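Retro notes, structure queue

What went well: the backlog is down to a handful. What didn't: a couple of records were mislabeled last round, so from now on we paste the full input next to the output in the thread. Example, using Cellulose binding domain-containing protein from Micromonospora parastrephiae:
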Amino acid sequence: MHIQRRRASLLTSLLLAATALSGINPPTASAAPDPVTVTVNAHAGLATVPDTALGVNHAIWDQNLGTAETSDLLRDAGVQMMRYPGGSYADIYHWKDHTAPGGYVAPNTDFDTFMAAVRRAGAQPMIIANYGTGTPAEAADWVRYANVTKGYGARYWTVGNENYGNGHYGSAWEADDHPDKSASQYARLVVEYADAMKAVDPSIKVGAVLTMPGNWPDGITAGSDPGPWNQTVLSIAGPKIDFVDVHWYPGGTAAESLARVNHIPDATYLLRQQLARYAGANADRIGISFTELNVDAGRNTQPAALFLADAYSGLLESGVFTVHWWNVHNGIGTVTQVAGQTDYGDFGMLSSGTCTEDGSVCEPPLNTPFAPYHGLSMMKLFAKAGDQFVRAGTDEPLVSAHAVRRGNGDLAVLLLNKDPDNAHPVAIDYAGFTPSAVAPTVSTLTNGATGITTGQSGSATSRTLPPYSLTTLVLHPVGATAGRPAAPGQPTASGVTGRAATITWPAATPGGSPIAKYEVYRQNGAVSEQLGETSTTSFTVDNLVPGSRYTVNVLARDTAGRLSWASPPLTFATGGPAASSCTVRFTTANDWGNGYIGGVEITNNGTRPITGWTLTWTWPTGWQQVSSGWSATWEQLGAAVRVTPTDDNRQIAAGASVSAGFVGAYSGPNVLPTAFTLNGTVCATG
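Corresponding output:
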């Protein structure tokens, strides 16, 4: 049994323990006689697809790592990045003599063989430097060999793999020979690794290991560290690193892991908040990679294909620069039946051709593609380097939608039916894009299929999605798109208060006509709300709601009426007012990974006492709750929290404060509230 598989089982048990909380129950499958409404909004721009987007892991225990057949299959699936030497093995692997003491190293898996496989597939490498049993000097020598001696141009290097699993938080699967296993020591050594490696090749990018917000050990502080793992690592190593590396195994049943894809926007939002808060100046230069993903149920069958396409799309549209499936080959596990198909419990996307120990069940022949391989192939058809993701959404939890706009004006739409039992008809509405009457190019992967079928059929506005299926539509626009202005540059926000913000952006480059004005839009789900327009490159937005998150785009319109693509998105959050008759201080302490001790302190800033009070706020997500509380009466309805006093603290004297506490619980990224209302007045926050 590989180290990686044991680690995944441990994480699964931790994640399953967290699902007892509310907000994670998946929707039940049901027949859908009425069409699902799908909205695709080309005005609501998201991230641009990078040339490193689609990745996989290659491991040194895989004797087929360097074969031409394997590399050609990965090339055909659109793989753009390969990670080496493989998960937890990275922290016991010594590249010079190609050994991994305590583990198995297959023949023909050395670094040069890996690089030959990378080049044959037309991909880029992601290399993990040995932190657990290695040294900065060993990592620097590897950089020298790769980029100076051999000229491989290996750009991305991560320091270690899941190093929070070294026993510091009580669970130990990751090798770590350092006497000090703290997050602080890991961060200090990341600085040493980065300095040593960049002294050899200043052009490389060095990454540090973080944990996924809302997943163990996020939020937990251990030993003498100044805070949880992410905070500690970023506070010390932030100025020296170029990206952070995160893994995610959502766990649970097939339905639960498919539902947990909804965690992605809040998880990536929290990661960027952590970067901004702790990583020092210019933290927005730090990228995010997700280099391990997989599921517990249906690893080789349709749930994995659906999860892969949905999660890759969600992460990439959130600005992650690469997403990697675990693994290329891994070997047979527990054999089950999933939605009528045999699932071999194999983490690999290609068959290893192995059998159970008793020989009763064998996988298909070596390199037979499993469902996640076809899911990756669907991503190749859907999202190409340079495409811009645009917002898409549905009114049915079992149907997901993603969309990209291409440089030639085409639009591609990815539709996923997560219902294993029922087909779902969909009606598609487009904003900012008018499809031509030509039948779209349609690619479909159905449950149990051995490949994707592609043809031209139907219309751009209606389709029936088979049960447990992935469908991509590629649509041509009506009329010519030449001559439009280029998209404005990345907007920034300044002067953000509870009610207003000033948005500024680099000017757009004109196309066939001069720029006439800029239009500022807010993304409201899959619908855009125009906030205003201006002839300058700055706009102040008023009438915002305190404690709310806003994502905006800027579009340029020229004197001929042509509209540009959307700018990159800008996300910012309003807080409470700078001054108010009340102040609320919200605190958290003793976080244990899916809960914490919370507190609210209410201060009366007025000149008269407050007799009788009601404090309210709304949780930013649907998976946060108040489990219990004290020194007040606590109520929660949906995401809304209502706190009222006891007889002992009904009155708050002028200038005085009262406090109350609660046990908070969460089963996903724990985005804390930032706006509080006392007796109808929005309070300042302390």
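Agreed that this is the format going forward. Reviewer comment attached to the example: Residues 608 and 654 are 5 Å apart (CA to CA).
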